[in-house]
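Standup notes, protein team

Yesterday: finished cleaning the Dyadobacter jejuensis set.
Today: DNA-binding NarL/FixJ family response regulator structure.
Blockers: none.

Input for DNA-binding NarL/FixJ family response regulator:
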Amino acid sequence: MTILLIEQYPILRAGLKYFLEAEFKNILTLESESLSYLPHDETGQRPNILILGLNEQHRSESLENMKQWKKRFPDCRVILYDEGEMDVQTISNYLRIGISGYISKEASSTELGECVRIIANGGKYISSTDLLSWMFDKPRSKNRKISRAKGTVRLSNRETEIADYLADGKGTTWIARKLDRKPSTISTIKGSIYHKLSVSNALELRDCVRQMKRNKVFA
């Protein structure tokens, strides 16, 4: 697996390289301060994953560069590594051009490693409370059918616990404190729950959990 690191700060870039090479076996890491100055790879391998470091000053510029990158390397999976909390509109623009992951630079090394593993295995990873709220809490069309979870739904023990808290009206910050987890981690699990149960907001989740309890699907 070849990972390309784009980060303007040399110390942070070196730290990422050290972490990734310690965390994953048989990987090649390439690095550069900008997409405009790509490193030369003597093996001729194309990067499988691009980790793009972002800051508030260069988000718009990076978006335009990313559009060109995806045209050039459509199969390369991209992780945005952001120093702040990106607004919903900007990150949705990135999603439209095909990024695979978003994670804050404030995330722990454990979360970063999990993010890279999920992306490498073909999944998506988004660590953003605001974005998850936008994705999963926005109203659905009245004509859109909701596939209610019945006997076929399989939530993990942790997802079941968090779904119960959410259905009881607890917020992600409260749940994070209760379970000693990061709010971003709870938000990611919340997104997974909403997807598995085919619900789009807290009210639908509450009704679905109640239905599952009546059907003895939910503990």
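Follow-up from PR in the comments: The beta strands are 2-6, 28-32, 49-54, 77-82, 101-104, 125-126.
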